[in-house]
Amino acid sequence: MQQLDSDVCVETGYEGANVGCVRTDRGLILIDTPMRPRDARAWRARVTQLTGQEVRYVINTSYHPYHMLSHHFFAPVPVIAHRTVWDQFESWSGNQRQRILEALREEYAEAVGAHEELRITRPRLTFTDRMILHCGEKSLRLIHLGGHSPAAIGVYLPENEIFFSGDVVVNRQHPDMEEAHTEQWLRALTDIRRLRIKVLVPGCGPLCTKEDTQRLSAYIRLLRRRVRSCMKGSQGWKEALDSIDMEELMEFFPTETTATVEKRVRASLRRVYEELQMEGKSL
Fold first, then answer.
1. The pTM is what?
2. Bridge partner list, 30
3. Measured between alpha carbons, how far is 76 from 53 in angstroms, rounded to an integer?
């Protein structure tokens, strides 16, 4: 666990996503929860023991399982999220629980058994654009960012100059773009860079600064250029994949294996192609 100041701490060592905790004089506010049940229990015990306070709210930066799968271990604490999270949960069928478990099985097989009693926790408070959460003397600004997914939000602590970006920023790894709206994503990264931020807590990876988001913006712009070039030649996303220099992409985030990157890039290029296709049809 890393203490960012006297009232804010984060844990970047859990599998799946980073999590944060903000101490107020009315209780603790958690930003996302660990994916694995054992980590969720440990995180709750750790922050309550260190502070002597109970959890008051959980803020959810996305509807992706890495961020919300263990919310029920914090019940009955109310969850706050973007309205799209509620809409997504409402659209899920009765088989969604099993589909989530199957999606986890490929990458986190050992976590599936621990989630056999999985209960999907709907948010109790939602917003669409912005929301200010006042809790005691603390005020947290919840900002809809989009880009990475329709539900993606950031949490800004202006007095502390700390920003929790969710997966709109990932550090030292290639982003997952399967649900992306890349034009909106680039705008969100620009908006983040305009804020007064000393510490940026990404959705995954080590803590960073807002200047580190420039690399992610350059990566997204590169994929858009490759896809747009292929579309001008009446080619598809597979041709865009063939035109990508994987060594060039690996230089952006060199800590991952080529096989992992290729799989993610394939899905990303397909999504960018679909997005640019829709842009062309709307002109």
1. 0.90
2. 21, 58
3. 15
